[in-house]
Write a structure and sequence with these properties.
Elements: H1 11-15, H2 17-22, E1 40-43, E2 62-67, E3 70-75, H3 76-82, E4 88-92, E5 95-99, H4 115-126, E6 132-134, E7 140-142
Antiparallel strand pairs: 1-2, 2-3, 3-5, 4-5, 6-7
Length: about 150
Amino acid sequence: MFDGVIPNSDWVRLITVNPAEALALHPYIGRLKAGLKADITILRARDDDANKSPLATRLQDMQMVRIGGLLLYGNRAAVNRLRPDRCESISVRGARMAVCVADAANRVQLGKQTLSSMRTRLLAKFSALAPWRRRAAGSVAYHRRATRFR
C-alpha cells in the first residue's frame, strides 16, 4: 500500500491517534474508547484485509456516519429504521442514502431547515454559480462547465 512507503498497519494511526497526540488532544479523541469523543463512519467491506478495505471504498459504500453518537447519514433503509421520518432521501452514485440535516432541538438560527430547503435557497441566490443541476427527486448530478484556455 502506498508503494511500501507507509506500512499497511500504520496508515489508520496516521489519521486518528497521531493527530490527536500531536494536538495534545489524545485524552479526549483519537481512539474508540469509553469516555472519549468519537465520530464513527461505517463502510462496506471491499477487501478481506481490514487495513486495505477502507482505501478501496467509494462514496456509495458509506453505510452510516455517526457524529456525537447521532446518526446523520447512511444507507437509506438503515437510517429510516433508526430515525424514521427525520431524514431526507438522496441518491449518491445510484446508492439510496439518507441525510439528517434538520435538528428540531437545535437552537441555532436556521437549525431546523432541511437539505431540500437549503438547496432551494442556494439555487435561488446563486443559480449562475451552481455546479449541480437537478435530475430526479432527491438526486443531484454534478456537471462541469466547459473551459477554454487561450
